[in-house]
């Protein structure tokens, strides 16, 4: 049976989408691509006014390309409306993106905070407040800043690793819930080395490690 591709740029709160409909028989049904949820690489972008499906192009492999001219890239406090296109196969499955004007944000950075939780630190709520205040000022998100926290005293323990939390709000909430490890020793050098090289942290040469 013949099929018809239909772009719906105002679908889903203006995110846009694409439908594939059967042509000919009565009561023909349409299948929806669900671009907003099916394509994982689109999940981090602003949710409104992308208008996917405003442009549709045939692809040589039997699929097609759907474009969203108002897709925006967030870099810190700046938002760049660069546009983006998604490549889909004949079954409406996303297989890639085309975003030639998108670029790496200047705010891209990995930060692992090394936090002293030994008995010499008191009162602990001031540490939690200080940490939350700092983290709330970071531009945390995919492609921008990722934050991990390692707390130490006699031991060094990852409170959370890079990329576990994807927004500043999530990181600040996690910081408020960190309890003090305690311990009679303050093994700062050991903790910094652990934060820098441990695979679990996700950090390595080129990452920022801050102690506190």
From TrEMBL:
Pfam families annotated for this entry?
VWA
The record's annotation in PROSITE patterns points to:
VWFA (PS50234)
What residue stretches are annotated with the VWFA domain? 110-195
For this protein, the parts annotated as crossing the membrane are none
* Classification via PANTHER family: COLLAGEN ALPHA, COLLAGEN ALPHA-1(VI) CHAIN-LIKE
Q: What is this protein called?
A: ITA10 protein
Q: What is the lineage of its organism?
A: Eukaryota, Metazoa, Chordata, Craniata, Vertebrata
Protein encoded by which gene: Itga10
């Amino acid at each position: 049976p013949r099929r018809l591709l239909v772009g719906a740029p105002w679908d889903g709160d203006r995110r846009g989408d694409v439908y594939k409909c059967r042509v000919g028989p009565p009561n023909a049904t349409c299948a929806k691509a669900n671009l907003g949820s099916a394509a994982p690489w689109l999940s981090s972008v602003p949710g409104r006014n992308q208008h996917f499906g405003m442009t549709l192009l045939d692809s040589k492999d039997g699929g097609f390309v759907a474009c969203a001219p108002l897709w925006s890239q967030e870099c810190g406090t700046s938002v760049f409306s660069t546009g983006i296109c998604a490549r889909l196969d004949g079954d409406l499955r996303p297989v890639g993106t085309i975003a030639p004007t998108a670029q790496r944000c200047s705010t891209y950075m990995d930060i692992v905070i090394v936090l002293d939780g030994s008995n010499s630190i008191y009162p602990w709520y001031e540490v939690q407040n200080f940490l939350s205040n700092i983290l709330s000022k970071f531009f945390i998100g995919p492609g921008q800043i990722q934050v991990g926290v390692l707390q130490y005293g006699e031991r060094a323990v990852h409170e959370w690793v890079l990329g576990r939390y994807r927004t500043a709000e999530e990181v600040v909430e996690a910081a408020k819930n960190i309890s003090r490890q305690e311990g009679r020793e303050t093994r700062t050098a050991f903790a910094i080395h652990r934060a820098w090289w441990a695979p679990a942290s996700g950090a390595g040469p080129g990452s920022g490690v801050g102690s506190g």
